Amino acid sequence: MTSTCSKCGNHSFEIQENSPARSRYMVWMVQCSSCGSVVGALEYFDSGVELQEQKRSLQHIGSAVDGCASRISALEAEVRKLANMVKVS
Fold this sequence. Notes:
There is one protein chain. Helices cover 47% and strands 20% of the residues. It is of the alpha+beta class and 89 residues long. It folds into 2 domains: 13-43, no CATH class; 46-89. A 3-stranded antiparallel sheet has the order 1-2-3, with no helix packed on it. A hairpin with a 5-residue loop joins β2 (27-32) and β3. The chain is rod-shaped and about 95 Å long. The termini are far apart.
């Protein structure tokens, strides 16, 4: 089955980037490649891809926080050792 433009009968379509008036987001307009009649719209950003990028960023931040926590624990242990050495002397 082939899709057909309801305006001119063409069977070829393309997508065109568009920024609708009063919209905060871009969209992809699916339009007839012959007459330009719009037959549909697609989200500009893929939500799944965006979520995966956010997940990777959060994992990176989590790793950095874990590294900082380890270093803080090591510093606390060294401070305790120094404090004990001062008490002994």
